[in-house]
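Incident log, entry 3
Record: NAD-dependent epimerase/dehydratase family protein (343 residues)
Problem: checksum mismatch between cached and fresh output.
Input:
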Amino acid sequence: MARVLVTGGSGFLGSLLVRRLLDDGHSVTSVDLLPATFAAPNFTPVVGDIRDRALLDRHVPGHEAVFHCAALLAHGTIKPRELWASNVEGTRVLAQATAASGIRSLVYISSNCLWARGFDRPVREDDEPAPCEIYGQSKLEGERILAAHAGDFATTIIRSPTIIDEGRLGLLAILFDFIREGRRVWLVGEGSNRYQFIYAKDLIAAMLLAWRQTASGVFGIGADDVGSMRETFQHVIAHAGTGARTAHLPLKPTLLAMRAAHALRVSPLGPYHYRMIAESFVFDTSRIKAGLGWQPTLTNGDMLLAAYRYYVANRAEIAARRDVSAHRQAANMGVIRVLKWVS
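Fresh output:
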């Protein structure tokens, strides 16, 4: 079996990937700013920064592949300069270390944040990226850095929408609290926009296919049969049985209020979330299906329901978590707490 390296192995996606690789019999090294959340045979967690070339030169050689999942997110207390340095310079240093070590394959998780607007059709790989905020800009720059190493190793870039699975929290924990307490779940506008998610295990399956096939290329990924946001929320509400129900806020005034709250730093919602809440974004997944032989297994509603049930069953343990990644803890509600009081 192979030796593989995962950056961000303590994060939400990274930790699931590490467990899958170990289950498949591989030896795994993780490099992350945070300590690992578990220990296992054949697993070597390294607490460190991917910008540290000396650290990478000690740990990267001897691996067959690199899965680059590490990224700082544009919320919380992270400063833009730090986010850019970690996501961009970290990718640059990692690419250099990968090339120097003679590794043949690197799989990079990019984002649908490469676009600042919604689309009325599926988004293709050849659509020109146009990010509006620093996280999307950093991901695009990471793609460019890796493209410059085309002669050194095969790079698979997978552009991912919001990743959902059991244990995914962050801003979703706010939605789950509204449902659990039987409150009104607010939609901005009519909730008719279609916003695609990806099941974490389906994304991991695509990453493993890309590695095994040493597939260079750019692929959009996401669930099939994407319903409206209203239908997705109602699917969870129907199975929760808490008396929660959807309600509507006027589109334009609500978006103006969200932007003002973000500017005042009293809301966890940023420009990326405005699109998810009010606009449509669905990747055309025909290329990844044809190129890698990949297929999704869960719809938006089913994966969100699995994440909700995990949250309800593990609330006490979640509240006690410390020193975990942003997606493995509940986000601060901020001004949304006012909306909860009137719901």
